[in-house]
Design a protein that fits this description.
single chain, 410 residues, 80% helix, 17 helices, mainly alpha, disordered N terminus, Growth Hormone, Chain: A, 0% strand
């Protein structure tokens, strides 16, 4: 039955009037929040010199970001019901921009606190976007629409890879942080006129004093949702390790310059954009997002294995091909995953299920880089570490396969 608080629209009218704007706004919010998370990784060698620490320590900074993301993903569903999805998106931009600005302070403590704040913002992006996108999507186009929105992640990484190194060379890393932090803060003002229409379904009487693990309990109560969420733990660990350590691997192991490495990072993130759209379109065409996730996992494992054979002074084209294939798969899975969660969720609880499913996802992001950094201490090479990490993608494959064998709602 149609919501009485909103006028009825046909699917064609919804597509014509709302879908494009919703996708553009949610994608832009996602891109800017992602940019704030990856700016430090894009200039990790420079930060390592400034703070006098090993470049591999960036993995622990990434873990701090996603520790913050776990916290807000647990309360995202409640915030959306009380404040509205667009206001929650504005809060995400505020946390991300202010966190990146705070990280510019010449202090490791400020850098750590700023990283957690950026994570607070990042954790709010997907539940709010899922709430808005479910309004303008249907079973025939849901995977593609969610995947289009998820292109914001690699697009934000492209922005970080292209802008951050150049700004560092021109102005220094602290000024680069401040310049880039201003962009998400500006978008808060730009999207404010949309709030009245988009947040009409909010309920100011909803109490914020609710069970903070209620959304996680929802996920755990449905075996198929549980398995697919655990698979996301594996996929996210691989994805963020690729984004966080690609530049450092290129500089330290393969002897690329910082700007040249940033260009390669941008290329593999563009491949991730193409992957998200392609996998989403394929999932809608096959009407089987689970099968697409199985294929993505196998390609990501193969790409990680091939990365261990890259060498300094080798063919640059081979480096681009292997890392772009890695990005196409390891960065391309998210939209199909979130659409699967929305499909498997009980009616009316897509944003809650998304928030709950993102807890294992962000835990993977938090644990993955730290584990990768620890493994690098043993191997001494980033290329070899990526090869060993291919096992994590294979574990994700096994979990998706387990979810496939469980009926929806079982």
């Amino acid at each position: 039955m149609a919501d009485k608080s909103t006028p009825h629209h046909s699917s064609e009218q919804i597509s014509r009037r709302a879908t494009t704007l919703v996708v553009v706004v949610t994608t832009t919010v996602q891109a800017l929040a992602t940019l704030c998370t990856l700016v430090p990784a894009a200039i990790a060698p420079e930060l390592a010199r400034s703070f006098g620490i090993p470049a591999s320590m960036i993995g622990f900074q990434v873990s701090l970001i996603y520790l913050g993301a776990i916290v807000t993903s647990l309360v995202g569903g409640v915030l959306i019901r009380r404040q509205g999805a667009l206001r929650t998106s504005q809060m995400a931009l505020g946390f991300a921009g202010c966190g990146l600005a705070l990280s510019a302070a010449p202090s490791m403590i400020a850098f750590a606190i700023g990283s957690v704040m950026v994570g607070f913002g990042y954790g709010l992006t997907n539940p709010s976007a899922a709430h808005l996108l479910m309004r303008v999507s249907n079973a025939e186009n849901r995977n593609l629409i969610f995947s289009l929105k998820q292109t914001g992640v690699p697009l934000g990484a492209v922005g970080a890879g292209l802008a951050a190194p150049s700004l560092v060379l021109m102005f220094g890393w602290q000024s680069a942080f401040l310049i880039l932090a201003a962009i998400p803060l500006g978008l808060i003002i730009a999207i404010q006129p949309l709030r009245h229409g988009w947040d009409r379904d909010r309920d100011p009487t909803v109490s914020l004093r609710q069970n903070p693990i209620g959304d996680l309990t929802l996920i755990w109560g449905f075996p198929a949702l549980r398995m697919i969420s655990l698979a996301a733990f594996c996929f996210s660990a691989v994805q963020v390790s690729l984004s966080a350590f690609a530049v450092t691997m290129l500089v330290d192991d393969l002897k690329f310059g910082l700007v040249q490495a940033g260009i390669v990072l941008s290329a593999l993130q563009v491949a991730g954009v193409l992957g998200r759209v392609s996998w989403g379109g394929m999932a809608d065409w096959l009407r089987d997002g689970n099968k697409v996730l199985l294929g993505v996992a196998l390609i990501a494992a193969s790409s990680g294995f091939m990365t261990m054979f890259l060498e300094g002074g080798g063919n640059i084209v081979v480096v681009y091909v292997v890392l772009c294939l890695f990005g196409f798969s390891a960065i391309g899975w998210n939209g199909v995953f979130i659409a699967e969660v929305a499909r498997l969720a009980p009616d009316g609880l897509a944003s809650n299920a998304t928030g709950g499913a993102l807890v294992p996802t962000y835990t993977g992001v938090m644990v993955g880089p730290a584990s990768f950094a620890g493994l690098h201490l043993l191997t001494g090479q980033f290329t070899a570490t990526f090869g060993i990490f291919a096992v994590v993608s294979l574990l994700g494959f096994a979990l998706v396969l387990a979810a496939r064998r469980l009926p929806v709602g079982d």
